[in-house]
Input
Amino acid sequence: MSIIVNVDVMMARRKMSSQELAEKIGITQANLSILKTGKAKAVRFSTLEAICKALNCQPGDILEYKE
Amino acid sequence: MKKKLKIYSTLFVVVLIYFVVTNLFYINAPSWYSTPNDKLKFVDCPPEFMSRETRADGTVITTNHETYGYEVYVAPKDRTTQRSLISTAKMSDSDGVELQTYMVEMQKVQLSVPASQNKFFNTLFIVSVITSVGGLIVIVWILCLVVKLVRRIRRGEVFVAQVSKYLEITGILLTALYVYQLIVSYAITQYNMHHIQLADYYVVFKNDTNSMYIITGLALMIISQIILMGKEMKEEQELTI
Output
């Protein structure tokens, strides 16, 4: 898929662990792993909102389009 | 996947229309018997296989030769006299004569083939044994697939690729069985046409293969593709974060 999820980059910038982020946004670590590895087929707006809130960033910082 | 679904559903609709149209034709047929004088004018049995003797007192003695029973479809050669009434028009023509529509209909007859014709039956026996064994193998295969399918479903695995595959193979096998039986039936009719000579009738081909095989087969093939679509939707749902 040409949409790249850069959650791991933002997590590294914010120095936040997977467990901490998963707890903050209310999803399991397994689902967060799916998101990070790019296996996810879709992201709910509510999840995106929670990620942006937890990482203090914009949706554009997390999602990227590459041809 | 969608291409397959389109092909299967188109085939299903075509087959269904074919059977509906041909069955409608035969549903209307029993109305013939409301007028006894217009019944089919077939003789009971072709004369080659039966001798009739009329006594001086007028009674007819019918003697069947030593024979094997053998069923074929026949149609009369003389289509002008041997016909049956299929419908009566309500309108009358200018002379006041009621218009009637006639058609020639095939009829299944029990032929009594002389027992001396062993060669004829030997060939048919071999063909029927091969057909039966082939059919049995396919049915056992289908049963194995159904058992596997039921096991999966009992484990709660419905929208998985294996279930779709089992259904598709079962459908293809059922459809193939129908086509195979149809071809064998046609081949036997061709064989009969060359070996059975009747005075007043032609041996004709009539498709009497069980239509449920192909209808069920195609329906299963469509369901298999629907399950595959369901599997994709399920995966998408599971991978939505």
In short: The helical segments of chain B are 2-28, 118-154, 161-195, 211-238. Confidence is low (pLDDT under 50) at residues 28-46, 81-93, 97-106 of chain B. The two ends of chain B are 26 Å apart (CA to CA).
